[in-house]
Amino acid sequence: MSKRGWVLLLALVFFSLSISGCYYEAAKKEIKNAENLLMELKNAGGPTKAPYEYCSADSFLTISKKEFDESDYKHAKDFAARSISVGQAGLAAVKK
Q1: Could you give the CA distance from residue 52 to residue 33 in angstroms, rounded to a whole number?
Q2: What is the pTM of this model?
Q3: What is the pLDDT along the chain (96 residues), one digit of tens a residue?
Q4: Which residues, including other chains, have CB under 8 Å from residue 50's CB and lie 6 or more apart?
């Protein structure tokens, strides 16, 4: 392999590793935010006042953690974001 080929290969490896690291940190942060929001919804009476939103947010968070454990950080972040979205809707419903 030529010198140019090695440089291209190393650049590709570096780029792919840097992308996966970004997803790891972003997913970890999003999961933490979803956990905090779900706890806030629970403390506000979400299980009884907004059961659909509470159960949905909890389910999305559970799936997110499973995806994170399987090193699928992009999907983990996506499911955590869905959990946050539904959790916010639940908080809005509880505060009405």
Answers
A1: 20
A2: 0.79
A3: 677 777 777 777 666 655 556 788 999 999 999 999 999 999 999 999 999 999 999 999 999 999 999 999 999 999 999 999 999 999 999 998
A4: 41, 89, 90, 91, 93, 94
Compute CA distances 26 → 14, 74, 76, 91, whole Å: 19, 9, 9, 24
Q: How distant, in Å, are the alpha carbons of 4, 65, 94 from that of 87?
A: 51, 16, 10
CB 60 within 8 A of CB 77: no
Please name the residue ranges forming H helices in the chain.
3-43, 46-49, 51-69, 73-94
Token pair 């399987």 is at which residue?
Answer: 70
Cα(9)–Cα(2) distance, rounded to whole angstroms? 11
Angle between helices 73-94 and 3-43 (to 10 degrees): 20
Using the 8-state DSSP alphabet, how is residue 44 labeled? T
